[in-house]
Amino acid sequence: MPSANPVQYIQPINRHQWGQAEVADLFAQPFMDLVFQAQQVHRENFEPNQVQLSTLISIKTGACPEDCAYCPQSAHYDTDLEKEKLLPIAEILEAAQKAVDAGATRFCMGAAWRNPSDRELPQVLATISAVKELGLETCATLGMLKPEQAHLLAEAGLDYYNHNLDTSEKYYDQIITTRTYQNRLDTLQSVRDAGMNVCAGGIVGMGEDESDRIGLLRTLANLPTAPESVPINMLVKVPGTPLEDVADLDDFDFIRTIAVARILMPQSYVRLSAGRHEMNDQMQALCFMAGANSIFYGEELLTTENASSDHDRQLFDRLGISAEKAQR
Questions:
Q1: Among 192, 196, 215, 297, which has the minimal tally of Cβ within 10 Å of its Cβ?
Q2: Distance between CA atoms of 57 and 260, rounded to whole angstroms?
Q3: Residues 15, 43, 64, 276: which is the catalytic one?
Q4: What is the pLDDT confidence band of residue 12, given thresholds at 50, 70 and 90?
Q5: 106, 139, 179, 287: which is the annotated catalytic residue?
Q6: Does residue 247 carry a pLDDT above 50?
Q7: Which of the residues 68, 218, 256, 276 is marked catalytic?
Q8: Is 64 a catalytic residue?
């Protein structure tokens, strides 16, 4: 029989300005109610059993001047990472073709720069144009951008630019001191002004509290236009970085973050990103139920391990999930 007092679910609000208390109320719901609401929102906006596949590679590794406390590529920390110069175009295209063959629809290229230099940007532009010819969506994360650089990337055919906020503005200076929160927001605005899609999310499990996860998602959702792609990363603790010994985040708190992201940004792709290598199948399944509908696909994410492609295909088969094949 139906309950005499059915749960009253908060309806998705088609607006940009979420209040801190509203988002806190979502996080505070009973877990099952929150996931149920997020699944409803997901089904209203996406095919319920499809997941978009992106492949991410590092095209320039290590020696980054930034001091992001989570990052093994920072020159500030000794992580035994082998530094590499910008990869030749042919090598990047070989990886892009492998991504196509494996079923990925988006190819993401990351460079460990504070910002791209005028000397190296032309090679990146040529690479983007070449990858586009393979029929892939293109994404890049190259650090901060000047408005004119964003326009050049757009003209080369870049579809998405990734620039994560990482955490809340309140907690930000505990993680990074070499660039400001406003620097990140300015880059996102330059990307939007150039006509590209925005890919922006964050990392959880860095010692932040729930109010910081609320602040991160609220800031993303309240941008003038919500990001088309929202990667939610679980911290990968790398020896040699300041966060190598931070306490683990509870799995349910991570899934809550996925669910709230889905509710706040109903038409965005919510990507289950770094940290999947450490997640069991049951946790990943709950993340998909909570509204995640994109993953990074392939054995490596920049410089850290990722779930194997074979395992992902087996999990998809068990869950009845298929890979998205075409743009929405």
A1: 192
A2: 28
A3: 64
A4: very low
A5: 139
A6: yes
A7: 68
A8: yes
What's the CA gap between 138 and 187, in Å, rounded?
A: 18
Compute how many other C-beta atoms are within 10 angstroms of the C-beta atom of residue 1.
Answer: 3
The answer to whether 71 is a known catalytic residue is yes
Contact 56, 301 (CB under 8 A): yes
Give the SS3 label for residue 204.
strand
Distance, in Å, from the CA atom of 19 to the CA atom of 13, rounded to the nearest integer, reads: 12
pLDDT in tens, 128-184: 988 888 888 899 888 889 999 999 999 999 999 999 999 999 999 999 999 899 999
DSSP 84: B
Please say if 287 is a catalytic residue.
no
- Burial of residue 182 (CB within 10 Å: 0-12, 13-18, 19+) is exposed
Q: Is the pTM for the entire model greater than 0.85?
A: yes
The residue count for the chain: 328
- 68 is annotated as an active-site residue: yes
Residue 203's H or E segment, with its range, is: strand 202-204
Q: What are the backbone angles phi and psi of residue 81, rounded to the nearest 5°? A: -85, 130
Q: Are 52 and 296 in contact (CB under 8 A)?
A: no
**Looking at 106, 108, 184, 256, which residue is catalytic?**
108
Pairing of the two strands 300-301 and 106-111: unpaired
DSSP-derived secondary structure for 2-64: --SS---PPPP--SS---HHHHHHHHHS-HHHHHHHHHHHHHHHS-TTEEEEEEEEEEEBS-B
Cβ neighbours of residue 314 under 8 Å, at least 6 residues apart? none
Q: pLDDT at residue 8 above 80?
A: no
Residue in 184, 199, 256, 287 annotated catalytic? 199
Runs of H (alpha helix) within 46-135: 89-102, 121-132
In 3D space, the residue among 83, 84, 38 whose CA is nearest the CA of residue 232 turns out to be 38
